[in-house]
Design goal:
- The structure holds 2 protein chains of 2 kinds.
- By secondary structure, chain A is α/β, with parallel strands linked by helices.
- Chain A contains 15 helices and 11 strands.
- Chain A has one domain: Amidase signature (AS) enzymes.
- In chain A, helix 2 runs antiparallel to helix 3 and helix 5 runs parallel beside helix 6.
- Chain B has 2 domains: about 290 residues, no CATH class; about 50 residues, no CATH class.
- Chain B is globular and about 60 Å long.
- In chain B, about 25% of the residues lie in helices and about 30% in strands.
- In chain B, strand 9 and strand 10 form a beta hairpin.
- The chains are: A alpha/beta, B alpha+beta.
């Protein structure tokens, strides 16, 4: 029986009833990765180590953990000891970290096997995976179409059934939007739920790791393992981590879902709108109530985000200077020349653009007008959410205003066009709130995602609402036709 | 014409913590290059800082000793600039909410006491070292010092001449060693200062254009550098020219200061709050604990001796806890692990 498109829960059963060994499972997963090489999901494979670890698991025969022997893919911005970590950038194209990120280490300690590192937008800056130094990733649903970004490689690898789940990071929608475009489930947890140690920073106050998987249940399995306080990341939360599987099956009778008044959905594509209305009805049938709520400052999310995120990125990316690691330009005249050439050669256009915007936003005379002002607006947006959650349990929006688009069709002339892709996802990063995207049908044979935003630390409620939806529908079971690859 | 000198000092005190400000690497001096360095100190991708509370306790001890206000909530900021021995491309420092605000230090010049007010004292990490003369055609970087905690103490511009500046630095040295805040080893760079020097016409209210002499690390050089700079600036002004605001370096072999970074005033460090660290909150209990363990300050002791034992000024002076012979006696006791028979200093 093929392991392609199987969930973690399915594979666990197969491993436990011995219909497959860990070695066979990993071998098959690696072969699928090779078979669909053209998708360009992976930047670096981890074949030798994967095979060894699977063999060791088979010999040990201890399967105490749900994740033991399960193949996973890691977004290529998690540092992995001894395994190249590039952030899909030329500047790190030769970087082999001496340590492993906490989130990945926890998954690996639980017995899961990292089969490779996935392609992404360079330093996670992008919404289409087109800024990668290692080339575009195809959407498994349609060749020549973007998988979304920045966790595009992770989303495509899961959607193509190569691995049951993968890690991603979400700074402004980078887990949820590619999950939506690839027809899978993706969760951005509460800021601080998962340690950022070993995650190469884009915008420190917004970055958050999370799972991409075929089901909400599998997201819960990964979240259980990835979560928790880490002494190495003092911004990680010191709060109790519940078992996210425990209440996932609870009925959602009386769940209060808010619809955000300021998001005028009638501006959207009529079919995206229609899917949204259908899902609303489905939730009503499951016992949920809908309430309109107002978040007066939410429309300022995109400009606020595009002031704060580039500012932090301009500083975070200063360490890529060609001095201690990464790409160093040859034949340079002096230190300044070394910086200029190494960074000019090492970074792509979008990264340079954001470093420039951020440097400007932080510079003397502009700091108050841009960065500081943006932080104040961010506080107002957070307050709006706090108010809304007085009367509702979750908020519902489309994940993205559009479905996946053709390579090169958006943002090439005007980058802002692409920034608006993040309209629905960005505000939960600014407020630090958890949010999930689940597939809820298709428009023109391309998947569409539904987003639920939860209150602080209430991933359990989101996973519950998503799981009940998936139990009563089969959108998440739809598989792409991979005949073109 | 009669001129008046205005000097403000920024003193960098290396705190005598065992480990660095944001990592658990050792701060020991003299290790082979790049051995007291961990992932955090070399600014690898993905690493994050965590605060060493011991550095805060030492900063607070200093603050209490100079009668300052302690900010129980203080935040770190990033100061962004590129340099080869600055691994992250920014220095983590404190800008808007430093740990210590205000306070003062007394100096004695020719038997007269003068109070120099302190503006603020903030915690920050030191940079590494660039070595330019050891390898032909290459510069070498030693990151052992990178991340070592510094307390930068900024004085008000209330120092009037080189002699006072030296007295201020000596008082500072005595205080930080007495408090065990720093080992005070100037040759190893544990105590160094930047001097902001400006000249104005006597009686003028407005300050003249200042220059900043960087990284002076001995009492002798402080005096010489400031005196050279005063003469240089007066000469410029007497010729009817203008002093250029710049950073200068004191070259002890030539006994002169010369420009280091003439475009310094145009530097833009793009400060912003460090998003990798939460505000550091010092609890009332922590403050109380530091207060309880606080040694009796020289001044308090002097008053007590006078009241309890009726010591004269002369006797008090020789028993002054900061008098050199008492300090060496204390060190001797400490070394030999002997508890003194009666309380000294």
């Amino acid at each position: 029986m093929s392991i392609q498109f199987k969930s973690i829960a399915d594979l666990r059963e197969m491993l436990d009833d011995k219909s497959i060994s860990a070695s066979e499972l990993i071998q098959e997963s690696l072969e699928l990765a090779k078979k669909y090489k053209e998708l360009n999901c992976f930047v670096t494979m981890n074949e030798e180590f994967s095979v060894k670890k699977a063999n060791a698991i088979d010999v040990n025969k201890k399967t105490s953990s749900r994740l033991s022997g399960i193949p996973l893919a890691q977004k290529d911005l998690f540092c992995t000891e001894g395994l190249r970590t590039t952030c899909s950038s030329k500047i790190l194209s030769n970087f082999i970290p001496p340590y492993t990120a906490t989130a990945v280490k926890k998954l690996e300690d639980a017995g899961s096997i990292t089969i490779g590192k996935t392609n992404m937008d360079e330093f996670a800056m992008g919404s289409s995976n087109e800024t990668s130094f290692f080339g575009n990733v195809h959407n498994p649903w349609k060749k020549g179409y973007v998988p979304g970004g920045s966790s595009g490689g992770s989303a495509a690898a899961v959607a193509a059934g190569i691995v049951p789940a993968a890690t991603g990071t979400d700074t402004g929608g980078s887990i949820r939007q590619p999950a939506a475009h690839c027809g899978i489930t993706g969760l951005k947890p509460t800021y601080g739920r998962i340690s950022r140690w070993g995650m190469i920073a884009f915008a420190s106050s917004l970055d958050q790791a999370g799972p991409l998987a075929r089901t909400a249940e599998d997201c819960a399995i990964l979240l259980n393992t990835m979560s928790g306080h880490d002494a190495k990341d003092t911004t990680s939360l010191n709060s109790n981590v519940p078992d996210f599987l425990e209440n996932i099956n609870q009925p959602i009778d009386g769940l209060k879902i808010g619809l955000i008044k300021e998001f005028n959905l009638s501006d959207l594509d009529s079919q995206v709108q229609a899917r949204f209305e259908e899902s609303k009805k489905a939730y009503e049938k499951l016992g949920a109530q809908f309430i309109e709520v107002s978040l007066p400052n939410i429309s300022a999310s995109v400009p606020t985000y595009y002031s704060i995120a580039p500012a932090e990125c301009s500083s975070n990316l200063s360490r890529f200077d060609g001095v201690r690691f990464g790409h160093r330009a040859e034949s340079t005249d002096d230190l300044n020349d070394l910086y200029i050439k190494s960074r000019s050669e090492g970074f792509g256009d979008e990264v340079k653009r954001r470093i420039l915007i951020g440097t400007y936003a932080l510079s003397a005379g502009y700091y108050d007008a841009y960065y500081k002002k943006a932080q104040q607006v961010r506080r107002l947006i957070k307050n709006d959410f706090d108010n809304a959650f007085q009367s509702v349990d979750a908020l519902m929006t489309p994940t993205s205003p559009n479905t996946a688009f053709k390579f090169g069709s958006k943002g090439t002339q005007n980058p802002v066009e692409l920034y608006l892709e993040d309209l629905f996802t960005i505000s939960s990063n600014l407020a630090g709130l958890p949010a999930i995207s689940i597939p809820h049908g298709q428009v023109n044979s391309l998947p569409v995602g539904l987003q639920l935003i939860g209150n602080f630390l209430r991933e359990d409620q989101l996973l519950n609402a998503a799981h009940i939806f998936q139990k009563n529908s089969d959108y998440h079971l739809a598989k792409p036709n991979l005949g073109d690859f | 014409m009669s001129w008046e000198t205005v000097i403000g000092l920024e003193t960098h005190v290396q705190l005598s913590t065992k480990t660095k400000l944001f990592s658990r690497a050792s701060t020991a001096f003299g290790a082979s290059p790049n051995t007291n360095v961990n992932l955090i100190d070399c600014g690898l991708p993905g690493v994050l800082p965590s605060v060493n509370k011991e550095a805060f306790y030492k900063a607070i001890r200093f603050g209490m000793a100079v009668g300052a206000q302690i900010n129980q909530t203080s935040i770190f900021d990033r100061k962004n600039y590129f340099y080869a021995d600055l691994p992250k491309g920014y220095q983590i420092t404190q800008m808007d909410l430093p740990i210590v605000i205000g306070g003062s230090i007394e100096i004695i010049i020719d038997e007269l006491t003068k109070t120099i007010n302190i503006t603020r004292a903030h915690l920050e990490e030191d940079a590494g070292k660039s070595i330019h003369d050891e390898f032909e055609g290459f510069s070498a970087i030693d990151l052992n010092r990178a991340g070592t905690p510094l307390l930068e103490i900024v004085s008000e511009p209330e120092i009037s001449n080189a002699k006072e500046a030296v007295a201020y630095m000596k008082a500072m040295h005595q205080l930080v060693t007495f408090l065990d805040v720093s080992d005070g080893n100037m040759a190893q760079g544990s105590l160094r200062c930047d001097a902001n020097v400006s000249i104005r016409k006597k009686g003028d209210k407005e300050l003249g254009t200042r220059t900043e002499i960087k990284n002076i690390n001995s009492f002798k050089f402080i005096e010489k550098a400031i005196n050279f700079e005063i003469k240089r600036q007066i000469k410029i002004l007497e010729n009817g020219e203008k002093v250029v605001q710049e950073t200068r370096l004191y070259d002890s072999s030539k006994d002169e200061t010369r420009p280091m970074r003439s475009k310094e005033f145009a530097n833009d460090y793009r400060y912003f709050p460090e998003p990798d660290l939460l505000p550091v909150i010092i609890s009332d209990e922590e403050i109380q604990k530091i207060r309880d363990e606080f040694p009796e300050l020289p001044k308090e002791k002097e008053i007590r001796y006078q009241q309890e034992y009726g010591l004269t000024a002369m006797m008090r002076k020789s028993l002054h806890p900061l008098s050199p012979w008492l300090i060496s006696l204390k060190l001797l006791y400490k070394k030999r692990k002997i508890t003194p028979f009666y309380q000294i200093g």
